[in-house]
Amino acid sequence: MGFSASIEKLIEEFEKLPSIGHKTAVRLAFHMLRLPEEECEQFANTVIDTRKNLKYCSVCNNITDVDPCPICANPKREKEVVCVVEDVRDIVQIEKTHEYNGVYHVLNGVISPMNGIGPNDIKLKELMTRIGTGEIKELILATNPNVEGEATAMYISKLVKPFEIKTTRIAHGIPIGGDLEYVDEVTLAKALENRTEL
Questions:
Q1: CB of 48 closer than 8 Å to CB of 55
Q2: How far is 47 from 37, CA to CA, in rounded Å?
Q3: Which of 13, 22, 79, 160 is 20 to 30 A from 99, alpha carbon to alpha carbon?
Q4: Which phi and psi (to 5°) does residue 146 adopt?
Q5: 149-181: pLDDT as tens digits
Q6: What pTM value is reported for the model?
Q7: Least trusted range by pLDDT, from 1-5, 12-16, 35-39
Q8: Chain segment 133-146, per-residue pLDDT in tens
Q9: Cα separation, 115 vs 151, whole angstroms
Q10: Cβ within 8 Å of residue 172, ≥6 positions away
Q11: pLDDT digits (tens, 9 = 90+) for 29-49
């Protein structure tokens, strides 16, 4: 390609990042090379320090540098309401709404037999341990609206049924500002199924 071996290696490392193609990797590599050495070192040290210092919250499995995480440790959060999510990134999205004041449980995946992921491969045992304490009054299942997310939500709802906990599923349907003409059939069917009374 014309670059030195070390530049090629740097480009290859950037290409390993999600959603980064070759052209973007080249731009990022040359951006890093143009930075003053101190800024490059600061960037590298930040990545290394972050990786070393982060751990999983012993309560909810959120990624954190303190245990329990700031959400679980916050006395103003409703500890009896637990939102079950697939991934830590889902917490960020829900928190952006400023509409939820409960706590979370991160599954770190979903049940996906096609990918060899069963119930024992995600954080279900930990969820059941939390439910067993008797503190949880409502479980909000906020897994993604795809086959694996739906299957995981159904599996969890069956698991918790004997505990008589209120179990809800986030609504799925047409996005605000959406146009029916452009909505796919599955989304429209979900919107009809989850309709609410006015």
A1: no
A2: 16
A3: 160
A4: -120, 180
A5: 999 999 999 999 999 899 999 887 777 777 777
A6: 0.81
A7: 1-5
A8: 999 999 999 999 88
A9: 14
A10: 145, 187, 190, 191, 194
A11: 999 999 999 999 999 999 999
Instruction: Domains for the chain: give ranges and CATH numbers.
Output: 5-53 (1.10.8.420), 77-169 (3.40.1360.10)
Which residue shows structure tokens 């890093």? 32
What residues contact 59, with CB distance under 8 A and at least 6 apart? 68, 69, 72, 103, 130
Cβ–Cβ < 8 Å for 91, 140: no
Picking from 192, 147, 196, the residue whose alpha carbon sits closest to that of residue 174 is 192
What CA–CA distances, in Å, run from 138 to 17, 63, 68, 81, 145? 37, 23, 21, 5, 20
Tokens at residue 145, please? 């609206």
Structure tokens at 1: 């390609």
**Alpha-carbon gap, residue 107 to 91, rounded angstroms:** 12
